[in-house]
């Protein structure tokens, strides 16, 4: 709620006041949802498990729907790409965002105390679906969390070390199982490669053939309209813009104001001559920072950055304190996701984050506490 208050107050120094006002409606869940948790007489801890159950089964249903849709598209077009990335869930929904939804549901089934055969099947299905979505940051984070769970939090953690090592081997092998995922990881670290490019902010065929490396994204003084940024190189370019803003603009304490960075990014994009878009595709200059930490710092200043950091660390601390692994998984997934996505600047992102943040961190409500006195 304090974070939303800072968003609202930024209107007074915003360089784009209309954009700030419009963005405040998107961020309203940061105010309304915590307020609902505070004033409600419901014991949310009691219903947390049931809420996670309903949520996880809904993700299984949605994932199955997307798989069936992909099979139908494959029959019609004979294009294997319909099973991967944004082609699988649509770019509007965003494969990276949906990967987080899938990962959390996966951990619900994986960490159940008593698992049925269906629970194991759901776990394998969601893990496989996660690989198809091919978000490197979420796949990597999920694999790390699986290792942590089996070695430190599962009931068999101290009794079945050999089994856990085998599971670890299976996880590592899964990175190499899908050639698409393997090539995507390799691509990001090659200076110039035309191997499978995979997910990025703009489709390569819309831009051109000259692939920009991360080094070029940071140092090039000018770009051409045919220069194409991979996912990583684009984020390096956006980080470069942020540090330039810090030097050139007085934004350290206050930032530009909520959603006011877009105009600044656009001007920089024109200055550097990045791909400006065409009749069907908007250019790189129209994109946000694709990094929640940088996005918040640029728009709300250092205090916004500190508030966000405190929220995330408090969330992780509570998960560890409660020894609630799904809570821990949620906390670490958010920390890693924010490195590559401005998740809270999207309606589905802010609703997802705020609901689960409040659900995992809620205590006895204020009204209920008063009633007990």
Residue ranges: pLDDT <50 for 5 or more in a row?
Answer: 187-191, 193-198, 365-373
The first-to-last residue Cα distance is 26 Å
Structural class, from secondary structure content?
mainly alpha
Instruction: Tell me the domain tally.
Output: 1
The global form is globular
Radius of gyration: 22 Å
Range of strand content: under 5%
Largest sheet: 2 strands, parallel
Helix content: 55-70%
Rounded mean pLDDT score: 87
Individual helix count: 18
Which descriptors would you attach to this protein?
68% helix; 2 strands; two-stranded parallel sheet; 373 residues; disordered C terminus; single chain; globular; mainly alpha
Topology, pairings included?
Elements: H1 2-9, H2 17-26, H3 29-39, H4 44-77, H5 85-89, H6 95-110, H7 117-133, H8 136-153, H9 161-177, H10 179-189, H11 204-207, E1 210-212, H12 214-219, E2 227-229, H13 231-248, H14 261-272, H15 292-322, H16 325-337, H17 347-361, H18 366-372
Parallel strand pairs: 1-2
What does this structure look like?
- With 373 residues, the chain is mainly alpha-helical.
- It has one domain.
- The chain is 68% helix and 2% strand.
- Strands 1-2 form a two-stranded parallel ribbon.
- Helix 6 packs antiparallel against helix 7 (117-133) and helix 16 runs antiparallel to helix 17.
- The protein is globular.
- The two termini are 26 Å apart.
- The model is unreliable at 187-191, 193-198 and 365-373 (pLDDT under 50).
